[in-house]
């Protein structure tokens, strides 16, 4: 392979990384105030973002690879030196309470002393502070600024140098009000206690203050405030919203607003365990004739409660109840309790004297010969256009009635497995809370409960599991895209913490905490594309990465049904996040940093985020690219080697260069104009890649192909030019 090509490819990739700068705390989290700030631990982000230095060389040559001058300090650790006038350093801090604070600066100067001031969020809070020569560059003295008013919350603190000729080692910030924090202990519940979902939990705290009074105690579950109490005994009663593992802490505040925090208590909230279970006379799957489904229970119940519209039988107004055994007509022509869909979904639960005594169970029965005539189901299914979101129910009758295709449709629907998603239709289409019609929103607050079933046409065993459902994608979340992709989250709160099934046979693992259901959205019939619609562009790129011997994400194709309505051709995809890394590379998922692009709710952010771990190592890579790779020594440093290229047993490898080269070969070969930067924004924004880094190993970041729809164009496709796409000579090389 041409060495110049490889070298240029690497430089391209590394220069692309330079586009991804953002200001973040050096150690991953803001420094807590009151506390100590080491001068050399200024924020990540680079020149003009987290610091300003008059040259791009670290004169001390240690600790950081930026232009800030860091050297070994005579007091231990490091200090910032060679300071020039108008240089500055920024630190993201978290002030615990609004209060007056004293600042103590450890500074040294062999010459005429120095002048500096401190700003918070751009406001000078100290005024210019001056000191005289200390008699040596490593002869430190403490200079103070007292009774500085700060407000509670996160801020950016700037240390601004009004003169040249001094060193700064550290800054200690203490409360100007001398007060010991309250002592706080959670006395109930005990650590590692387990509760059944639906149980009200009493949380009790003992809080005392040696030099004041406790004004209130605040209670938190997973960082979210769940209650307060201002009188002894400090106690709340809390009803968890979902089954989950929770971290409980308590925080007491005294009369000077000084806070004390308890040790963390871990508790687990589980679904009730039922000895009883339902028995269905017919397995889920594919049927050609109507039948009567009988539902009974193993240990006997007084009633079976069920729905046929995807809603929860315990809470739905459409639920029907009958004495056990329940006999239910499974007839695709019937609209009793349901819309007219090709599949019939049954959700059922057993009752004893009116109370639930079995888990909710879901079964889907598909009638393939009804799919060709699929239309608007009626009933509670809404018309397209909710919140401007478009979608299509109807099968295209021009295709269905075409002699070339009409005899192939049923066979095609049985040629690959099907996945059935079953959920309350409001979870998808409610104007205020439905995820399909509010597709631009992200996060756990936009996750809804669903059942997922795998139905195999050959009759082999599939699965049914409850999970959390979200919308997947970036730009395709816009409402003009009729078909959205999905993400699945397997959690204890829904029943099981993992899906255990060999989705990819011997090709991959058989346990999953997350799974994507992606579909063709840009080049798709549903989006109006006629000639370019294909489902193999993305899978080809990812499979190619696997064939090259590199880590990759696997896929399989499925027909998707939502509450019995055919929704089109989809594909599963592994989510290349920390649990994926643990499954394939070993270790623990907490050891991994996973970096990706977040385009934001307004589709214009294009920011780099750590979906797992921190951005610390990524920022180190970025800072290395800022220094540049004119010399081999700089390049070898990125690989954790000595300046002459020999192995350094203590070196830190930041990038797996072989992986990076082969990742970029895929980009070049397929003419990808939407990754790792996107031509849709003039190559100015990152897009569509994952990078994984193990903080405990020394393997460097690896890059995984992701969302490669804009590839394999023989002819120009705006803004790209096809497989001749020039991804080397971009502006930032």
Structural summary, described in words:
By secondary structure, the protein is mainly beta. The two termini are 20 Å apart. The longest helix is centred in the N-terminal third of the chain and has 15 residues, at 3-17. The model is unreliable at 1-6 and 728-733 (pLDDT under 50). It has 9 helices and 46 strands. It folds into 5 domains: 3-20 and 591-705, no CATH class; 34-175, Jelly Rolls; 183-270, Immunoglobulin-like; 278-368, Immunoglobulin-like, CATH 2.60.40; 382-573, no CATH class. A hairpin with a 7-residue loop joins β45 (689-694) and β46. The strands form 11 sheets. Strands 1, 3, 6, 8, 9, 10 and 12 form a 7-stranded mixed sheet that branches. The protein has a 7-stranded mixed beta barrel with strand order 32-33-34-35-38-40-39. Strands 15, 17, 18, 20, 21 and 22 form a 6-stranded mixed sheet that branches.
Q: Uncertain runs with pLDDT below 50, 5 residues or more? A: 1-6, 728-733
Name the beta content range.
35-45%
Q: How many structural domains in the coordinates? A: 5
Pairing-aware structural class of the strands and helices?
mainly beta
Number of strands: 46
Distance between the termini: 20 Å
How would you describe the shape?
globular
Number of helices: 9
